[in-house]
Amino acid sequence: MPVASSTATSGRLLSLLSLLQARRDWPGALLAGRLGVSERTVRRDVDRLRELGYPVQAVKGPDGGYRLEAGGQMPPLLFDEEQAVALAVALRIAVGTGAGIEEAAARALATVRQVMPSRLRQRVDVLEIAAAGGSAVQVDTDILLALSLAIRATEEVRFDYEAPAADPGPRPPRRVQPHHLVVRSGRWYLIGWDAVREDWRTYRVDRLRLRVPNGPRFTPREVPGGDVATFLAARFKGSATADVWPCRGEVVLDLPTAYVAPFAGDGVVEEVAFGKTRLLTGSWSWPALAAGLLRFECEIEVVGPPELRAAFAELAGRATRAANHGA
């Protein structure tokens, strides 16, 4: 019995510490309810955490409560099982982000895994996490940290940008109000407001070289639509607003649906008859949409709109000229 009681107390202390780390202030009654014990037991457990070196302060007020203060003499952090698994998953993802912390993340993962109970190691080891869209592009960690600080401080940044351009000559540094750092398909992107062009811009972080010092402070804005991931996805589709292709068309392909679906991407596929498939899909331009549909080696019936039919005619003219060139 003493062993079981001691184990229960240790587990409750770990749960209490986890709760105190999750929010700033905790009323004593709320902590007691979450832990399923009395407020008196909570007070005793808080005293035990203090004896272990955790700076738990009493909060005055009608309800009373507790707060875990930050301190330079913080004892080693403790994690419950869910936190430990979440940390291991996050570290494994970090290995493939291209943020310049891959080696450190791998070493940290090995350290965390070593101190895990065997049942948790088994849960973590079965996870197979790979970066979508190919290998990550390496980014200087110092640049990521500097951009993060600028975003927090709402300070304009200046940088040289190696953008593909017809003119290889020198260009003036960019001046951007940084708002978000986003990783997508193994690449880091800076989303910022260009006050000169009065528009949002997206930059690959691996192509920029920061200049110092930062510029003046600015008032943050909200990206169109309010959701950063949706906004970035829309920009990759050539849309300035919603996450939809600016050019969308409908065709009927002389192919079974089973042959079309694996190559339809985010298009909508519907069987209209035996061996015929309706496909509603989009692209950033009408010629690009028509060219993409031509990858299906079959007869194509254009349902609409007229812009798609015109794009097929334009591609046909290009193909004819290319076939006759030099003949």
TrEMBL record:
Where do transmembrane segments lie in this chain? none
Top-level taxon in the UniProt lineage:
Bacteria
Alphabetized, the UniProt keywords read:
DNA-binding, Transcription, Transcription regulation
Q: Which InterPro entries match?
A: CBASS_pafABC_assoc_protein, DeoR_HTH, HTH_11, PafC-like, Tscrpt_reg_HTH_DeoR_CS, WH-like_DNA-bd_sf, WH_DNA-bd_sf, WYL_dom
SUPFAM superfamilies per UniProt: Winged helix' DNA-binding domain
What residue stretches are annotated with the HTH deoR-type domain? 9-64
Which Gene Ontology terms cover its molecular function?
DNA binding; DNA-binding transcription factor activity
Know the name of this protein? HTH type 11 transcriptional regulator
